[in-house]
Design goal:
alpha/beta; Rossmann fold; 4-stranded parallel sheet; 4 helices; 4 strands; about 25% helix; globular
């Protein structure tokens, strides 16, 4: 099956947030009255971004992933879900999506596979082979 969409986890998958350098830099810039900068993938276009909301459930509840599927009018089986934690793999599995573990993230291959990763990738371009 050719997948039609990909859900990306943010922390550790799309962004290296361990050092939180951007927040630190923006804090210093603001302190000196200088403009701060957004840290986003400004060259990339996303159809939809869903994050934690006070009124909604959190991962591994699949509600957010299923909300994305519904908004894009695609069945969950049409999605790859790329993440780097056990929670991401559990979310993908609970949503009925194909769980892809990112080895450059926060967890080990063992943790990813034992929580539902169907494929592990070591570098982002490897995701293209799955599409």
């Amino acid at each position: 099956m050719r997948y039609q969409a990909v859900i990306f986890d943010l922390d550790g998958t799309l962004l290296d947030t361990l050092a939180d350098l951007a927040a630190s830099m923006n804090h210093v810039l603001a302190r000196f009255g200088l403009p701060t900068h957004a840290v986003l993938l400004s060259d990339w276009q996303f159809e939809l971004v869903v994050g934690v909301r006070p009124e909604g459930p959190i991962k591994p509840d699949p509600a957010g992933a299923l909300e994305i599927a519904a908004a894009l009018k695609l069945p969950p089986s049409a999605f790859l879900y790329l993440g780097d934690t056990s929670t991401d793999m559990q979310t993908a599995t609970a949503a009925g999506m194909f769980a892809v573990g990112a080895l450059w993230g926060f967890r080990t291959a063992q943790e990813l596979t034992s929580n539902g990763a169907r494929v592990l990738i070591a570098r982002p371009p490897e995701l293209l082979d799955l599409l």
